[in-house]
């Protein structure tokens, strides 16, 4: 009986578990990577209504992680403009951050060098596009709208320009690979015959 009691005691944490029952939780807890922290500490961003006991029980019940100490603070957000067309400013909700002391140390894994499985190239293109649009919007607000002729041509416009030069020089002949009705072919032949004497004259 004593051995069973010892086994049960080993499976329980070194603190008293709470009795709060949560059904269908909708809160979000974010594990933050802080390089300056020692291996026996971890930082989490939690909802404002979360308490130290909530996070301690949450880590134990879901991940079997024992916590010996919890520190928390509320971080105020800077003033933010509602939108670019408004003069209204507001302060977003503050963020609640908790740092826990772990009974067993945790080491972050090395960052992967190959980010292809996470579509990193797509995210970079998206960020570049968003940055370009923000710069264009800022220039428009300052009434500095660049001329279309001074903007770099896109790949499609460059291909069209090259094709137009080849058509004008006679290197390529225009064709849309559409078979015309025979009556239109007769009209084209008559027009070509009329153009040839004019060139000879």
From TrEMBL:
Keyword Ribonucleoprotein present in the record's keywords: the answer is yes
Q: Give the keywords, sorted.
A: Ribonucleoprotein, Ribosomal protein
Note the InterPro entries from the entry. Answer: Nucleotide-bd_a/b_plait_sf, Ribosomal_uL23-like, Ribosomal_uL23/eL15/eS24_sf
Spell out the GO cellular component terms annotated for this protein, sorted alphabetically and separated by semicolons. mitochondrial large ribosomal subunit
What GO annotations for molecular function exist for this entry?
Answer: structural constituent of ribosome
Q: Which GO terms describe its biological process?
A: mitochondrial translation
One Pfam entry for this protein is Ribosomal_L23
Domain of life of the native organism: Eukaryota
Per the UniProt record, which residue ranges are transmembrane?
Answer: none
Q: Which family does it belong to?
A: Belongs to the universal ribosomal protein uL23 family.
- The entry's protein name is Large ribosomal subunit protein uL23m
């Amino acid at each position: 009986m004593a051995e069973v009691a010892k086994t049960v005691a080993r499976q329980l944490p070194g603190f008293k578990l709470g009795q709060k029952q949560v059904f269908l939780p909708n809160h979000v807890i974010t594990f933050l990577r802080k390089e300056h922290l020692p291996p026996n500490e971890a930082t989490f961003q939690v909802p404002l209504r979360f308490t130290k006991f909530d996070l301690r029980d949450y880590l134990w019940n879901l991940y079997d992680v024992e916590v010996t100490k919890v520190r928390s603070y509320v971080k105020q957000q800077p003033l933010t403009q509602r939108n670019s067309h408004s003069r209204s400013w507001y302060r977003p909700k503050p963020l609640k951050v908790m740092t826990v002391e772990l009974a067993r140390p945790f080491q972050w894994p090395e960052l992967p060098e190959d980010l292809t499985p996470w579509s990193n190239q797509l995210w970079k293109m998206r960020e570049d596009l968003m940055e370009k649009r923000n710069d264009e919007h800022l220039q428009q607000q300052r009434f500095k709208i660049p001329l279309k002729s001074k903007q770099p041509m896109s790949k499609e416009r460059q291909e069209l320009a090259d094709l137009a030069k080849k058509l004008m020089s006679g290197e390529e002949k225009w064709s849309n690979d559409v078979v015309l009705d025979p009556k239109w072919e007769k009209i084209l032949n008559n027009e070509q015959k009329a153009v040839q004497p004019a060139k000879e004259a």
